[in-house]
Amino acid sequence: MPSAPSAKAPVLLVCGDDDFGVKERAREVFGQWSEEIGGLDHEMIDATVGNSGEALAALSKLRAALQTLPFFGSGKVIWLRSCNFMGEERAAEARAVTENLSDLAQELKAFSWQNVRLLVSAGKVDKRKTFYKTLEKIGSVEMFAGWSADDRDWAGQAENLALRILGQLRKEISGEALARLVAYTGPHPRALRSEIEKLFLYVGARARIDTADVEAIVTRHKQARAFALGDALGERNLPRVLRCLDEELWEMRRDTQHNEIGLLYGLISKVRSLIQVTELLAQKWLRPESDFGRFKGQLARIPAEALPEDKKFNPLAINPYVLFRALGQAPNYTQAELIIAMGLLLECNRQLISRSLDPALVLQQALVRILGRPEGQVLPAAA
User: Fold this and answer.
1) What pLDDT is attached to residue 287?
2) Total domain count, the chain
3) Region for 327 from its dihedrals, namely left if φ exceeds 0, alpha if ψ lies in -120 to 50, beta otherwise
4) Are residues 20 and 115 in the same domain?
5) Tell me: the pLDDT tens digits for 190-205?
6) Does residue 193 share a domain with residue 66?
């Protein structure tokens, strides 16, 4: 995490999609600046608005704060907090707000910053606008990009954040427990911090967090529940697969953004990872391994230039823990069975798109065919 800006940069904009990271960093800077300057005149102005009128009112408060000299102490820190009209929001597009921000930018350029510091925290910002460019010119900008499941390194970033928080709490965690924690929470910093706090309370005075602790207390978020379905498929455990599928289908009744196609794509990704691991084992780039730390060492030695650039087919683009689980599960299937499984899932995709059959039944039939058939026996695709 970056250190607090020096007094030579009296203006700081902290912004980005990572809401948790932005708030934590802004809170840290405000505390450090307030301690450095001293006094009791520091101000926080709430800039989360619902319309242009509220945005103009927040800007008016900011001007008043800048023009009011500190009564106590030697200086003043002003925090324009959680500003949501610096991007493409409706309030930000209002002409009165745009003009007001442009005028304020000119005022900030001419302002005497002696003993006064301005901190602005915001979500998405439009870098083309005058106000952003002015803050960048007279001060500094720190961007906190959000994590996405499509990012190759999101799991690594999540692990680093978790280790940093756990270090502050004076707790240690095993490599596999850390990987499971990240896999269960997904690319969500706020959720990750919340789950770490739960673990901290759960283990009490014990210094080390193990896999059993994660399994006992960590909540499986949406991505993790889909992970559980794929994990059951990898274990070739039909009762567990059907139970996980029922849980997912039940969840869809409450979450309209969750659908059968999404479940299917998760299963396809799982089978693809099993195929990839099988090939890596055949190429002797991987060997069976039960320790997650040593497994990551094996991955680091795989020549990147020998693998496809397309992330869908590159095993190094997968969350290492997902690949680690697939390594232990790959012996449950022959390569021929995995290829047949992929064909069944693709046929399932066609049927789901056509909507000619009940989606739950289509998924159940495909999974029963994949997991239930004797090894080596080839069954035709469902009609």
Assistant:
1) 92
2) 3
3) alpha
4) yes
5) 888 889 999 999 999 9
6) no
151 burial (CB, 10 Å; 0-12 / 13-18 / 19+) is middle
In a domain, 114, yes or no: yes
318: helix, strand or coil: coil
5 in a structural domain: no
Counting residues of the chain whose pLDDT is more than 90, the rounded percentage is 39
| 252 and 366 assigned to the same domain | yes
Ordered alpha helix ranges (H), 307-357: 320-329, 335-354
Output the average pLDDT for the chain.
Answer: 85
Same-domain pairing of 24 and 76: yes
Among 202, 217, 232, residue at a domain's last position: 217
328's tokens = 């232990």
Last residue of a domain, one of 111, 143, 175: 143
- For residue 383, being part of any structural domain is answered with no
pLDDT higher than threshold 80 for residue 74: no
**Residue 31 in domain:** yes
Q: What is the spatial distance between Cα 233 and Cα 271, in angstroms, rounded to a whole number? A: 8
Q: Residue 317: what pLDDT?
A: 79
Amino acid present at 198: K
pLDDT at residue 44 in the model: 94
Same domain, 170 and 101: no
Q: Taking the model in full, what pTM does it have?
A: 0.59
Q: How far apart are CA 137 and CA 129, in angstroms?
A: 13
- pLDDT value of position 6: 41
DSSP line for 255-307: -TT--HHHHHHHHHHHHHHHHHHHHHHHTTS----S-HHHHHHHHHTS-GGGS
Judged by DSSP in three states, 244 sits in helix
Taking 3-state DSSP, the helix, strand and coil percentages for the chain, each rounded to the nearest 5, stand at 60, 10, 30
251 and 193 housed in the same domain: no
Q: Give the residue numbers spanning the domain of 205.
A: 154-217
Q: Within a 10 A sphere around the Cβ of 79, how many other Cβ atoms?
A: 26
Chain segment 291-333, per-residue pLDDT in tens: 888 888 898 899 888 888 887 788 887 778 888 889 999 999 9
